[in-house]
Amino acid sequence: MNDREVLELLNSVEYSEEEIKNLEEKAISRSNSIGEDLYKIKNDRVLRNIAFIELERKIKSYLEKDENIKYKMMVLQSYLEKKIFARYVGDWGGKVAIYMGLLVTNKRIFVFRLDHFYEVLEEYSNDINNLESFTDLWKKCDTISLNFKDGKNVFPRPFEKENKEIFLDMIRYLRESTNAPFVEIKRPKVGVIFWIMAVLALAAFIGIGIDAFKLFMESLRNIP
């Protein structure tokens, strides 16, 4: 996107006095919300629109001749808890994944995990035919997960009424296209290796404790 296009997009967005006041109050309530951070908070909608346009353009460059976009939305990254929507990605100090760009064509599903400034952190895509199942977590955390045959699970959480309607319509479309069933959520199983390591660690801890106790008793005997 060139500078002219960015300016046109910025000029197309208008805020009411109430919206600006709310954004300013939100910024003031944060400890480090001056300068660039304050600007980005005020222009969250602009940043979202720009990111959305960029993602759509990127996807269009991938499309095959008989492929077209059916659904596109910006959703939250769900962490299976209603009040938790941010976790660090990568090593310590990594960026927080909050948003998710979700675009569905008649052939593929594209997922982009984004930080709070809508910068892409991770990108994933797969064929619709590789969609293995869904998990209904709507009552628990406002999401229905997409489970793929390669083991990848995607947990998008739509927000706002219109967004939720589009999301549920997308789920219906994917179900009709794949006949993928709804399944219970898979909890990670604790492997045998984990238990072996835990037992060894416990044994080592007990051994160290016994040795320390022996040294302590020996020191008591040597007291004149």
Automatic annotation (TrEMBL):
Keyword hit for Membrane: yes
Alphabetized UniProt keyword annotations: Membrane, Transmembrane, Transmembrane helix
UniProt KW Transmembrane helix keyword: yes
Domain of life: Bacteria
Transmembrane segments: 192-213
Name this protein carries in UniProt: Uncharacterized protein
